[in-house]
Design goal:
Length: about 450
């Protein structure tokens, strides 16, 4: 069966691999010149590194199984993580229960309470009981105002911006579950990384798709999904300024909902479902440094006067020996995709950020930056309101042979590479069941 997949990110490539393995005739259309989405790799100073920082958790079952299936297990290495919190102009360790008990911005009573609340959430299994309330409401009620004001509130605000007080509690629950599941018996967080970068994972998927008879078109933007009698019949796409048509028996769209709405019309009820999840864009600098910036892999920024939300020093997770002795630091921000920051001159924006880096680490100087790459994406973080399980768009669209798989359907978990793999597998299983039922 002619199967068209719109989007060559991880969801699209995994779906193409799994379907081509089953004998489907698969064609992937990717509007960009590269594959893999935010897991795709760029070159900075001779080093391969993902456009968006990536790691795996111990409970990332679907992608770990796929890595094994692709014979890439030897590339998957596990490392001890380290977390810092920048609060009140000071950097604190925040990796272990001992660090929590020593965290001075909170009163001792709140530190103890934070530990108990975290352990309580870790033991909860039913996420649906949390989706009826916002994270802000639940944290204030059960953890206390001080914990919300000084830790979780600022983190929610930095990640979700104007939407922070509407994020439902089930998302927060899932974040805690994932973090705890990746800890060892000493309370240390252990994270995984493909030592040859995710480029190896993407390349292997592409090889398998081609080997199974599939094809992939880059720089090919789908401009319409055409349907008749509630069945998708073909797509129109644009390549090198020329419009072309491609016949399809099955169509899988992995683009964000607002992009999907531009290329196909659904009934009013489904259109509304596609509108529920809003998106924040991501603005990311990747710096190649002469020396280590901090002792931590991940630094959460609590102070609201700092104009970015986090620092991820990749070479504090994966040794700099894999990167020719260079140090790699991400500066990350989630913002409304219409925010003026996306139009700012990148040199000037980096200068603004550097002044804050110098406050966080007084030994840091702009001259420590050997080179940098800037990356942005318009639909990086979906914003999910309360009771989202009844609002979430289904994989099967109202058009019989058109399926949807994107980050708005990762719920209650946070978006991530593992869940992109999981969505692809669920869509492929759904397609296989429907065909077998005929």
């Amino acid at each position: 069966m002619n199967t068209v997949i719109i989007g060559g990110g991880i969801t699209g490539l995994v779906a193409a691999y799994k379907l081509s393995k089953k004998g489907f005739k698969v064609t992937v259309f990717e509007s960009s010149y590269f594959l893999g989405g935010q897991a795709s790799v760029i070159n900075i100073g001779g080093n391969k590194i993902e456009r968006g920082y990536h790691h795996l958790f111990k409970n990332d079952k679907e992608i770990i199984e796929l890595i094994e299936e692709l014979d890439l297990s030897d590339s998957l290495k596990w490392f001890k993580s380290s977390v810092g919190m920048y609060s009140n102009k000071k950097l604190y360790p925040f990796s272990t229960p001992k660090d929590l008990l020593s965290y001075k911005p909170l009163s001792l009573i709140s530190r103890i309470r934070l530990g108990f609340v975290s352990l309580y959430l870790q033991r909860q299994k039913n996420w649906k009981k949390y989706e009826k309330v916002t994270a802000k409401y639940w944290i204030n009620k059960y953890a206390g105002k001080e914990i919300f004001t000084k830790i979780w509130g600022p983190l929610l605000k930095s990640k979700f911006g104007y939407f922070y007080n509407k994020i439902n509690m089930s998302w927060f629950w899932s974040k805690m579950i994932t973090r705890f599941a990746s800890r060892n018996n000493k309370g240390e967080e252990i994270l995984g990384y493909l030592i040859n970068s995710f480029d190896e994972f993407i390349d292997k998927l592409v090889y398998k798709i081609n080997d199974n008879g599939g094809q992939i078109f880059l720089n090919s933007k789908v401009i319409s999904i055409n349907h008749n009698n509630n069945i998708a019949t073909n797509i129109n796409y644009e390549i090198n300024g020329e419009q072309k048509k491609f016949e399809a028996d099955i169509v899988i769209s992995t683009v964000p909902n607002f992009e999907l709405k531009k290329i196909v019309k659904f009934n009013k009820n489904f259109q509304k479902k596609l509108d529920v999840a809003k998106y924040l864009g991501a603005s990311v600098f990747i710096l190649k440094l002469k020396k280590k910036f901090s002792p931590y892999y991940w630094i959460n920024i609590i102070d609201e006067d700092v104009p970015f939300l986090g620092l991820i020093e990749h070479t504090n997770l994966v040794s700099e020996k894999y990167y020719n002795g260079d140090h790699i630091l991400y500066i990350t921000n989630y913002l409304d995709y219409k925010d003026k920051i996306f139009k700012e001159d990148k040199e000037k924006l980096l200068d603004k950020y550097v002044s804050h880096l110098e406050e966080i680490n007084p030994n840091f100087k702009k001259e420590d930056i050997e080179s940098f790459v800037y990356n942005s994406v318009s639909a990086a973080q979906p914003l999910l309101p309360i009771n989202y399980s009844i609002l979430k768009p289904e994989y099967q669209s109202p058009i019989n042979n058109l399926y949807i798989g994107n980050t708005s359907q990762i719920y209650p978990e946070d978006r991530g590479t593992n869940y992109s793999v999981k969505i692809a597998g669920e869509i492929v299983s759904l397609i296989s069941r429907r065909i077998n039922e005929r």
